[in-house]
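Researcher: Next entry in the queue.
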Amino acid sequence: MRSFRYLRPSNLQEVIGFLEEHGAGARLLAGGTDLSVELHYGQSLPRAVIDLKRASDLSPVITEEDGWLAISATVPLTDVEGNKTVRRCFPALAEAAAVVGSIQIRNRATLVGNVCNASPAADMVPVLAVYGAVVKIIGRGGERSLPLVDFIQGNRRTALVAGELATALCIPFPSKPFGSAFARVTRRYGVDLAAVNLCCGIDGSGMTTLAFGAVSPRPLVVQDRDGVLADPSAAADIKSVVLDALISKATPITDVRASAEYRLAMLKVLALRAQRRAAERLAKEM
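Model: Structure for this entry, 286 residues:
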């Protein structure tokens, strides 16, 4: 492991100052579950590690404001999973948070960090995409916000520019009945990355939204606007044709976790399971 400066800023302005000072040689530390592994194996060689946990204006809070649920950058996944508002209004988010790594990892890893890591297999990303989450960003030039689907630009690439950091994820509360569910498959339970993951959301009009993970470099969001998938009277073969068309937009690869063919097959299986659970939850909201 190469030596680096360890910095503990007390507020956001200090964080931004350190980012500007060290440029591309700086890495941010919130939970550190990914960064610590990269440091250990020499996959990351920063000149400075900036610890966000002492920044007074980045305290770990989940708040409700103006129709949005805001989750700050230092909130660990355990707190997301256990939050009553999340479990009531965004159940798929709680489901996804409950299966990331082990309990030890979830006690440290943050939701915002999971997004900023921009792994194609990140479990939280498909859920946040279906819920229409927005990433809040701050830098010396001020604040800006980007939809999650635009924030993640590819494998390990985000829209952050020099001197910027993500400070929170904001999720709009549904304005009408909405059912959602998360599903994934891994080689083993607990600490493996997903071979495939997805989230399904169905609104009161019958539109089904699916977001797929681990089958494209960035979040893949597709929709059945005709209401076929959510229609209980639609024939199974018709639903299958619609779902096949949506899945055909995926571009999975073959790697150590799964073949491209397996990923495509499991997308359909998981999508049908998640769609059924989302429909059941929607029915309870109606």
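Model: Residues 60-172 form a domain with the Uridine Diphospho-n-acetylenolpyruvylglucosamine Reductase; domain 3 fold (CATH 3.30.465.10).
Researcher: Noted, moving on.
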